[in-house]
Specification:
It contains two helices and four strands; from the N terminus they run βααβββ. It is α+β, with helices and mostly antiparallel strands. It has a four-stranded antiparallel β-sheet with strand order 1-3-4-2, covered by helices on one side. β3 and β4 form a beta hairpin. The termini are far apart.
Length: 96
């Protein structure tokens, strides 16, 4: 979906899903050195999601990881995106 490998089941409305994936791809594309500037990318995505889809979003980006989180219904997304031959795992969720 939009260049990302979205893991199923998806628990997010289509418009929110598309916005989250496309914004993440845009922000990762602007980042030249993720090891150095990755925290800024994550903070920028969190701020964007909070302003666009109301507050309390959490964003994690890394190589791969597991999680067990409690989130609001229809507000969870986990996907992989390859940038510069490097796979990034991205998890976004909203906790109330």
């Amino acid at each position: 979906m939009w260049g990302a490998k979205v893991k199923t089941p998806v628990d997010m409305p289509d418009d929110m899903l598309k916005d989250a994936v496309q914004t993440t791809i845009e922000k990762l594309g602007e980042c030249e050195n993720f090891d150095k500037d990755g925290n800024e990318v994550v903070a920028s995505l969190k701020k964007y999601m909070d302003s666009r889809w109301t507050p309390n979003w959490h964003v994690c980006i890394g190589k791969n990881f597991g999680s067990f989180v409690t989130h609001e219904t229809r507000c969870f997304l986990y996907f992989y995106y390859e940038i510069n031959q490097d796979n990034k795992a991205v998890m976004m969720y909203k906790a109330g």
